[in-house]
Structures are given as C-alpha cells and as structure tokens.
Amino acid sequence: MDPKKIFDAVVNGDVQETQAGVNEALAANVPAEQILNEALIPAMTEVGCLFEAQEFYVPEMLVSAKAMQSGLNTLKPLLASQADLSSKKTNPKAVLGTVKGDLHDIGKDLVVMMLEGAGFQVTDLGVDVPPEKFIEAVNDGAQVIGMSAMLTTTMLNMKVTIEALKDAGVRDKVKVIVGGAPLTQSFADSIGADGFAKDASSAVRKAKELITTQEAT
Ligand code: B1M
Fold this sequence. Notes:
five-stranded parallel β-sheet, Methyltransferase, Methionine Synthase (B12-binding Domains), Chain A, domain 1
C-alpha cells in the first residue's frame, strides 16, 4: 500500500483517488484497519492541523470529509470487530448519535460500523441529536447509548443528555458510553457516563463489557 497516496487524496478532497487508493491497498491484501489507521485517520488529523493553521477553511474540511467517507464506505464490510457476541441469544441493542449542536459524524460512523461488525443491533440517530431522542431510544429497548462529540462546546451536551435520562427515570435502564477527540476518561467520569472509549475498537470492547455486567446484575 502507498499510504501517502490515500493520505494525499483525502487531504485534497479527491473522492475518486481515495477510492482508487483504498481499492489498490485492498487488492494488495492490506488489512482494512491498517488502511484506516495508517492513511485515512492521519489524513483527517492533517486536515484539522491545516484548519488550525488557517490554510484550510470549512469548505476544504467538508470535501476532505467526503473523501474520507467514501474510503470508509469501501472498508465498511471489512471492518469487523474482534468482539464476539455469537454466544448471545439476542444481539444487544445500541443507539449511537452525535450530540446536539455537533455535526461531526465520521468518528461516530466508525463506531457504528464496528459495533455492527461485532453483532450489536445498532440504531444510528445521526448528528445534532437532542436528549429526547436518546430517551425515546431507551424506551424502545436500547441497552447501550453511545454519544459522540468533537467540539469542546458540544461535549457539554453529553452531561445535559445524561441529566435528561435521569429526569425521565430511565438512566438505570441503559449503559452510556461517550467518545470523541476532546474527551477524556476524567470528563466521562465527571458527567456520570458508564464508559469512555478513545477509538472505535475500544468503544466495542467497552460496550461488550458493559452489556456483560448489565446482564449479570
Ligand atoms: Co470540524 N472541528 N468544525 N468539521 N473538524 C474539528 C473537530 C477541530 C478539532 C478542527 C481544529 O480546529 N483542529 C475543531 C474543534 C475545536 C474544538 O472544539 N476544540 C473543529 C471546528 C472548530 C469546527 C467548526 C466550529 C468550524 C466552523 O464552522 N468554524 C464546525 C462546527 C460544526 C458543528 O459541528 N456544529 C466544524 C465543521 C466541520 C465539518 C462539517 C466541515 C467537518 C465534519 C464533516 C463530517 O463529520 N461529516 C469537520 C471536520 C472534518 C473536522 C476534522 C478536521 C476531522 C474530524 C474527523 O472526522 N476526524 C476535525 C479535526 C480533527 O479531528 N483533528 C475538526 C476523523 C475521525 C475518524 O476521528 O472524529 O476523532 P474522530 O473519531 C475517533 C475518536 O474520537 C473516537 O473514535 C473515532 C475513531 O477512532 N470517537 C468515539 C468518536 N466518537 C466516539 C464515540 C464513542 C467512542 C469513540 O463512543 C460512543
């Protein structure tokens, strides 16, 4: 694989080149996770740096995001997870969303893909999800809620959502996992989340662990 080719294609927002690079890598038997971790994700990190340096603006971030998403779509069927839920009688239900005010969905989509690969039944609420939607999902039987946030401003809406779950009397029925670039374990603890995951694979591990403890109690 030439990670530089895929990296450059994403940074330049070139959908066709991104797909071509990803397909070439797959044809050369490069594992999907390696393509993700060595080319696609570093490219988005670079886009963030260029944005901070004011060399990129929102439109450039958007086209790069489109290229990244096209690469991810190609990898989607291959991004199965190491978590094995095959022994479960019914697949646990998880609901994912990017919190209110936040439109970033690439990281959340990755978590969705990996949870699906691990055998969870996943409902994706999308972006800019208000607390009421999460409450509705718990009432519909969700066992795990996954919230994503990418802005230091919107991560505060995770706390708002957890408080809303308490006010609605459903907090004890569900496990809450939070993640996203600005988050830390201590932030997750401070808002009363059950788990924090720094990336999509850890999110699957954490969800599986929480489901197991939930079923044991
Ligand atoms: Co935005 N943006 N953006 N942006 N954007 C960031 C986040 C930023 C860090 C860029 C920067 O300044 N360096 C910065 C935030 C600064 C801050 O809050 N401290 C920023 C800003 C400022 C903004 C706007 C305010 C810009 C503006 O309008 N002036 C605006 C806000 C819009 C809004 O949300 N209301 C904005 C808009 C956008 C676009 C729409 C243009 C676009 C998003 C397109 C899309 O998502 N469809 C965009 C992009 C692309 C980025 C960067 C460049 C890339 C994000 C990304 O997709 N990364 C980002 C810079 C960066 O992250 N370095 C940036 C790749 C992705 C795989 O990683 O999302 O971190 P990530 O997900 C990881 C983990 O975090 C974790 O697992 C994933 C896989 O490993 N994870 C979870 C995520 N969710 C999880 C949930 C879990 C567990 C793990 O459990 C449930």
